[in-house]
Fold this sequence. Notes:
10 helices
Amino acid sequence: LAIRIQATGKHNLEVSTLLNSIGILYFKQGHLDRALEHFYDGLSIRRLVPASPRDIATMAFNIAEIHGERGEIEKALEYWEEALSLERVQYALRRSNCANRDKKNIITILHRLASLHRSNGNLDRALQCLEDGVSVALNGNETDEIDTDEIDTDSITDNNVLLTELAKLFGLMGSIHLSKGDTEDAMRAFTKAMRLNNLAGLADHSNLEMNGLVLYSVCRLHPPCAPAA
């Protein structure tokens, strides 16, 4: 890093990329303060030099992730919102190219935002973020109204990335509905999440958790009959 700064000066994209890489290493080692310091330095550079919205969003994403890890929800929300805004711009610029990757980034951020709003007790805002994510996955536009009960999952079975992201959205949606006591909505969301997971060919522990949550919601809706006398 010092050699690169000496050769090119501090304010260029390559230096910010090195700062980001070093920040990631510190993050993996559990040194969150040092990681955050490098991410902030990288972000300040990317705001000053010619950089794509994605370049800046990446730094904001990493900063948000660390603030979230440290339980600093308001700061995390601030940088997730910045990353989301930049990813929207990126998607608009490249709508015909790499569309699914851009969609995935937007959906990932909306999922993170929903998780933080849930932690903050703002369940309605969390659900709105998840519904926006579903809209992005299907139409590419968060403002589109989507009836989640009418989604034709068969229309996207050729795209495992979006199937996986949709499954995560509906899984969290089901958990939030369950915590609100909306058992029927929870069961519908969990069932969709399970179907999407199966379509994507996933087989991990999240499936087991989701199966348990669905079973729980079904049992609350339809408790087993008492044994006959």
